[in-house]
Design brief:
The complex is a heterotrimer of chains A (287), B (354) and C (260).
Chain A: H1 2-36, H2 54-61, H3 63-96, H4 100-114, H5 118-129, H6 134-142, H7 155-179, H8 183-191, H9 196-224, H10 228-234, H11 241-250, H12 255-285
Helix pairs in contact in A: 2-3, 3-7, 3-9, 4-7, 5-7, 5-10, 7-9, 7-10, 8-9, 9-12, 11-12
Chain B: E1 4-13, E2 16-26, E3 31-35, H1 42-50, E4 57-62, E5 65-66, E6 77-80, H2 92-102, H3 107-120, H4 136-148, E7 154-158, H5 166-183, E8 186-191, H6 194-200, E9 203-208, E10 211-216, H7 218-223, H8 228-233, E11 238-244, E12 249-252, E13 256-259, E14 270-275, E15 281-284, E16 295-306, E17 310-317, E18 320-327, E19 339-344, E20 350-353
Helix pairs in contact in B: 2-3, 2-4, 3-4
Chain C: H1 2-31, H2 47-54, H3 56-89, H4 95-100, H5 103-107, H6 110-124, H7 130-154, H8 159-166, H9 171-200, H10 203-208, H11 216-226, H12 230-253
Helix pairs in contact in C: 1-12, 2-12, 3-7, 3-9, 3-11, 7-9, 8-9, 9-12
Classes of the chains: A mainly alpha (287), B alpha+beta (354), C mainly alpha (260).
């Protein structure tokens, strides 16, 4: 039985450091945040704090927070929908209609922006959307008498910026599951008399749904938690749950309330996961 | 040339016994085949001998020394894996030389031995190639050379020819046997291809559900299966069940009296007899009949399958559907519906179960 | 009719690529524009790049970013590779749970993770700063490293190490002479990944940056909030080209599908 003991030691040695690190940096902080959300004030600099549920109650009472959450959810929905409508066809085109070196090249081109600096990408959109920016310039080049045009600091600007950020990711997840569909399945459907539309609707779409779902969830969740993009692109029109939470820590300094709001957002996230857990787990294992 | 003894080996995975009190002796220089269906324990036994699976109880001895808890790298064995497991980042030369270089052999000696081994497997000149540049058959030979160059005491082969196509497999079988004879190493190999086991082995062992069902030379195990499972697993068998009538016959319902040369138990006992399809002759009514002292029945051809070298018939005899293999001498199979006689010698009715 | 379909596909993909790269191209072009007010048309000049060198804040932040990313790369790659090896070579109870625990860092919004770290570190006395950011970056990088190395290991299975053992190699020898070389491309790709994750990380760094210490993304964000200066275009151009270059390198080392 020496081998068994040695094996256990090996497994422990290999996994302990990483998981201790994760516990200290993710699990414990999340627990601390939960605890914090029930305090009256942050117990730093010698301040006394008591337990309270006021922050959670405020969320339920005040209309402001409800509309805020709703706005954030709507933003998530809009961005995800746009990403799917634009990204899924692109993934389909890449997986089924483009072959050889072009496929690899285009795929790489699509993924490349996704893995580069998100902040810079969002910033680059300001150069395009602001008054005096690229869009304005193009507009005036075509219609010189038009008034100055600026998309910046509007809700659509936020959506565009977020779509730009997450579109490659949706393309990626859809592409992976579409590519995995054997061509022979489509040929089999064809031989049984299915038209192109029917092949898509009854074979391709159902089989690619898991990948699509992964892309949807892993886009929706970061979007509802975003604050950088709404601030930079939306300004005053960009007040979302994420920006309000950020305020609690950088300007208002009401940490317990921020913690409570964060936990509510985390609750929403976990709910989404729970609802789609079976599909997600099996799909991500293969990723 | 070493002996390997397995004594009372038991290995459980959860509640399933992969090895259930297995004992067997592998003799010096023997080429021994382990066959059986998936999950029967043959691979588990091989891996236990190699040192990759701990036994729950029982012992393994090499040259009468127990190997105990000794890890795989100290057992002085050679192993060829199902997918060859060639090191992808090393050349053919480096792959074959690996076992030597790990033991610190000097370069000159290594070069000589690797060269000799590559020549033995007919891959001289392939030194600088990488595994991915080789065909399946070539990879297999490199794997073999790599396992043999350190002159291990035992050679273990885990379905070594499984990934090759039929023609290549047959070629490699011959080569494998030649090499083994020349080197003289005790070899244990696992396969699920019964034909392979029969052609290559000096002795075979049939596994089923963690136990050894029968051990013996191929001819012995094939001609005299001792259980219905062994009869059905190694080749095909027509099974007939009935009650013992007297010293030499069994009454089989829907057929008649079957005569056998085996010793039968007391009258009235229920037994099963097996008859191999190739032992049965088929002839049409009226033509010259073979000798009188045979089991002979009338039947009708139900199906005939033409396979070039042989013909397979399914013949309805009484209430039984009997399978017959015949050499393709006539070139035309008998058509379905033909009334025929089937017959075989009593010695080919094998008692397999009571 | 077929041709129309092919051209429609090409047009669609082309437009999408245009959408993805337009703002980046515009920004890069403007970085070379002499006008401080972003007025088009472009007058070529590298003045903003040159002024970057004198911008002490940006240079300091840049050094922090690179240093942090390097340390993160070493730690995350080492820790993550160990876990990937454990997952690939052993089956054990609780493995599924451990695998599940890798998801929070990449699926929970970074806003929440950053805030929770801020709260916890303050409470426990770790406070803010580069060391705190390092703790966070490694946590975020670990899942990616494990995934990348794991994918590489999956292609080769335990047979290679077993083969080495039958040839007489001790576990250490087998690791050094077989496992490590075979793993190498995957580990290299994972390392670069970890570097990129840290270098590009904004949210966590933002919350854990004390006054006076920051990384490049945090600095840029502050500059954007204060008001546009053309220097932002210049530093952003450098960053984005560097990021993309890094990604191309990773793609080389680790093709989706793996090299056999």
């Amino acid at each position: 039985m020496m081998q068994e003991a040695r094996r256990r030691v090996a497994i422990g040695f290999l996994t302990a450091p990483a998981y201790v690190w994760l516990t200290v940096t993710v699990l414990l902080p999340l627990s601390a945040m939960l605890f914090f959300s029930f305090l009256t004030v942050a117990p730093i600099n010698g301040r006394e704090a008591q337990l309270t549920t006021e922050h959670y109650l405020t969320f339920i009472d005040k209309d402001f927070y409800r509309t805020l959450t709703w706005r954030s959810l709507r933003l998530g929905f809009d961005v995800t929908l746009a990403c799917v409508l634009v990204g899924y066809p692109a993934a389909l085109a890449l997986a089924k209609h483009v072959k050889g070196r072009w496929r690899e090249a285009i795929f790489l081109l699509i993924i490349l922006p996704f893995w580069s600096n998100a902040l810079v990408r969002v910033y680059s959109w300001t150069m395009v959307m602001r008054e005096g920016g690229f869009l304005d310039w193009v507009l005036h080049w075509m219609a010189p008498d038009a008034p100055p045009f600026g998309l910046l600091f509007t809700y659509p600007a936020i959506v565009i910026g977020l779509v730009h950020s997450y579109l490659p990711y949706v393309v990626l997840t859809c592409y992976i599951s579409l590519e995995a569909i054997d061509d022979s399945l489509m040929e089999a459907a064809r031989s049984l008399g299915a038209s192109t539309l029917q092949v898509f609707w009854r074979v391709i779409l159902p089989l690619s749904l898991p990948g699509l779902l992964v892309g949807v969830i892993l886009t929706f969740i970061p979007v509802i938690g975003s604050f950088m993009e709404p601030r930079i692109l939306g300004g005053r029109a960009g007040i979302m749950l994420g920006t309000v939470i950020e305020d609690q820590f950088t300007t208002v300094f009401n940490w317990p309330r921020g913690a409570a709001l964060s936990f509510i957002m985390l609750g929403i996230v976990l709910l989404i996961f729970a609802a789609s857990a079976p599909l997600l787990r099996s799909r991500l294992k293969g990723l | 040339m070493s002996t390997v003894d397995v004594i009372g080996a038991v290995k459980r995975y959860g509640r399933v016994a992969a090895l259930d009190e297995v004992s067997i002796r592998f003799g010096e220089g023997e080429f021994f085949g382990l066959i059986g269906p998936s999950g029967s324990g043959k691979t588990t036994l091989l891996r236990a001998i190699a040192g990759f699976a701990d036994l729950d109880s029982g012992e393994i001895r090499i040259d009468n020394q127990p190997v105990g808890d000794r890890p795989a790298h100290k057992r002085d064995i050679g192993m060829v894996f199902q997918n060859y497991a060639l090191f992808p980042h090393l050349t053919v030369f480096e792959n074959v030389a690996f076992g030597l270089s790990v033991r610190g052999r000097p370069r000159e000696a290594t070069r000589k031995e690797v060269g000799a081994m590559l020549e033995l497997v007919r891959l001289s000149g392939f030194d600088a190639r990488k595994p991915r540049q080789l065909s399946g058959g070539q990879q297999q030979r490199v794997a073999l050379a790599r396992a043999l160059v350190t002159r291990p005491r035992v050679l273990l082969l885990d379905e070594p020819l499984g990934a090759l196509d039929k023609r290549l497999r047959q070629e490699m079988q011959i080569e494998l046997r030649l090499i083994q004879r020349e080197v003289g190493i005790t070899t244990i190999f696992v396969t699920h291809d019964q034909e392979e086991a029969l052609t290559l082995s000096d002795r075979i062992a049939i596994f089923n559900e963690g136990k050894i069902v029968q051990i013996g030379a191929p001819g012995e195990v094939y001609e005299r299966p001792r259980s219905a499972f062994a009869a059905g697993f190694l080749g095909d068998a027509n099974l007939f069940q009935g009650a013992v009538l007297d010293g030499r016959g069994v009454e089989v319902g829907g057929l008649g009296i079957l005569r056998t040369a085996d010793a039968l138990p007391a009258a009235g006992t229920h037994v099963t007899l097996a008859v191999r399809p190739e032992k049965i002759q088929v002839w049409v009514e009226g033509l010259a009949t073979p000798g009188a002292d045979i089991n002979r029945f009338r039947g009708t051809v139900r199906r005939a399958v033409y396979a070039g070298t042989n013909l397979t018939y399914k013949i309805e005899v009484g209430t039984h559907l009997v399978t017959v293999f015949e050499q393709n001498r006539a070139a035309h199979p008998l058509p379905a519906g033909t009334a025929v006689n089937v017959g075989w010698l009593p010695v080919h009715s094998v008692l397999v179960a009571t | 009719m077929r041709d129309l379909g092919i051209w429609a596909v090409r047009l669609y993909l082309g437009l999408m690529l245009l959408f993805l790269y337009l703002p980046i191209v515009v920004m890069v072009l403007l970085a070379f524009n002499r006008s401080p007010l972003y007025q088009l048309p472009i007058v070529w000049d590298t003045v903003w790049f040159q002024s970057l060198i004198h911008n002490d804040r940006l240079v300091g932040a840049g050094l922090n970013s690179v240093g942090l990313a390097l340390v993160n790369m070493v730690i995350a790659t080492a820790l993550g590779t160990m876990v990937a090896i454990a997952f690939a070579r052993y089956q054990f109870r609780g493995k599924a749970v451990l695998e599940l625990l890798l998801f929070p860092p990449i699926t929970i919004p970074w806003l929440i993770i950053g805030i929770s770290m801020l709260i916890f570190f303050f409470w426990v006395g770790i406070g803010r700063g580069l060391h705190a950011m390092l703790l966070g970056h490694v946590a975020l990088s670990l899942p990616y490293v494990i995934m990348v190395v794991g994918a590489r290991l999956k292609g080769y299975g335990p047979a290679l190490e077993e083969a080495a053992a039958t040839l007489g190699a001790s576990p250490w020898q087998a690791f050094w002479r077989v496992s490590l070389p075979v793993m190498a491309p995957g580990v290299a790709a994972a390392a670069l990944f970890a570097f990129a994750v840290s270098f590009d990380q904004f949210v966590i760094s933002y919350f854990l940056a004390p006054p006076g210490v920051s990384t490049l993304p945090v600095e840029i964000y502050a500059a954007i909030r204060k008001g546009f200066t053309p220097e932002i275009n210049a530093i952003s151009t450098i960053i984005i080209l560097f990021s993309m270059g890094l990604m191309l390198l990773i793609a080389r080392l680790y093709r989706f599908g793996g090299e056999r």
